[in-house]
Amino acid sequence: MPRDNFLFTSESVSEGHPDKVCDRISDAVVDTFLAADPFSRVACETLTTTNRIVLAGEVRGPDSITHDMLEDVARGAVKSIGYEQDGFHWKNSEVSVYLHQQSADIAQGVDAAGNKDEGAGDQGIMFGYACRETEALMPAPIHLSHQILKSMAEARHSGTTKGFGPDSKSQVTLQYENGKPVRATSVVVSTQHDEGLSQDEVREMVRPFVEGVLPNGWMCPEDEFYVNPTGNFVIGGPDGDAGLTGRKIIVDTYGGAAPHGGGAFSGKDPTKVDRSAAYAGRYLAKNVVAAGLADKCTIQLSYAIGVSKPLSIYVDCAGTGTVDEGKLEGALGEVMDLSPRGIREHLGLSRPIYERSAAYGHFGRTPDEDGGFSWERTDLADAIKSALT
User: Fold this and answer.
1) Which H/E stretch holds residue 302?
2) Rounded to an integer, what distance in angstroms lies between the CA atom of residue 204 and that of residue 189?
3) What is the pLDDT of residues 162-175, one digit of tens each?
4) Active-site residue 45, yes or no?
5) Is residue 242 annotated as a catalytic residue, yes or no?
6) Which of 24, 40, 42, 382 is the least buried, fewest Cβ under 10 Å from its Cβ?
7) H/E/C letters for each residue in 264-299?
8) Catalytic residue among 11, 15, 19, 316
């Protein structure tokens, strides 16, 4: 039986965190290729350290996209985040591009040919999740952690709050009673800041963003409110710690409240099921909950490289469902084509919509008019209910 009373913690990191800088650059590369050709193939990894940016991986796309162009893309992503520091500057950092052509062995498995449909870009398992803890149908700890940092970043970019640097982290611990979150027991925020600001000054700068995000009455006790516990955070970003694409997969998903298949999202085009099938899992789980069929829903999908159909569909509603989970598994396979091509077409994934997803979570976001965050729509709820009758 699941526990009803417990503490649960999730963390988030800002767009200026070294790993998120890398995710942002890698997804900017994906968008560049998809904008030029929606059938491009991209697997781009990025490394950042003190005044150095390295891109590596494999691509297949228009020859018009040169290494010089991708260098400009990387600089533009760093500039947008706001890095103009001696140790990491969008203009002065050395950028090296080591992207090469996609392996022919991988291409023959992924591409459609003859009677063969488009295959999965790799083997693996992917999970989707939704619950009723927030309006976004996301677990509350990760959702609140994201919102704290997102609101701080918005204030930094707009200039309404001076003194914040791009690099920051948050962590929220919530008390659950009868299975529902009721208050925060501790909050941690570490944020890069201007030289000369004291720890107390930074604490009071951060406070309104935490209090503004937490529901009324949820603020943690004062002695459990930790801001820059090390005492100073002036050196940040890739100058303070190296960054790599794909190291924040729990931040990107559900904050540990649901399983994770292990594959990262950023830097990958939508033929890579690590990304597209995880989006499909979230889409289906969210629509199951939105349809009133469960208060919680976990979905697992599995694939083999070069094979179009999913090998398995698994649904777990954690005892909150109103219908048989086996029937629900069958219904989900009916209402959505879960082949890589089917997912890509249903969610409109072959568009340049990924750079915006690189920070503050891929899930729990608002769908954009141009198709960004399409997997957050709840337009499949009625179809799922109909398939069950």
Assistant:
1) strand 296-303
2) 12
3) 999 999 999 999 99
4) yes
5) yes
6) 382
7) CCCCECCCCHHHHHHHHHHHHHHHHHHCCCCCEEEE
8) 19
Question: Would you say 210 and 187 are in contact if contact means Cβ atoms under 8 Å apart?
Answer: yes
pLDDT digits (tens, 9 = 90+) for 1-25: 568 899 999 999 999 999 999 999 9
Which two structure tokens, joined as six digits, stand for 322?
């109103």
Q: In the structure encoding, which two tokens stand for residue 104, read together? A: 């022919």
What are the DSSP calls for 340-381, one per residue?
A: HHHHHHHHT-SSS--GGGSSS-SSSPPPPTTSTTGGG--TTH
- 272, 346, 356, 362: the catalytic one is 272
Instruction: Retrieve residue 204's tokens.
Output: 């009071």
Cα separation, 160 vs 153, whole angstroms: 10
**Does the annotation count 169 as an active-site position?**
yes
pTM comes to 0.95
Question: Per the structure block, which two tokens stand in for 113?
Answer: 């040919």
* 296 catalytic residue (yes or no): no
11, 252, 269, 274: the active-site residue:
274
Report CA Rg, the chain.
21
Residue type, 245: T
Main-chain phi, psi angles of 90, to 5 degrees = -60, -30
Q: Which of 71, 211, 241, 345 is catalytic?
A: 241
Any catalytic annotation for residue 286?
A: no
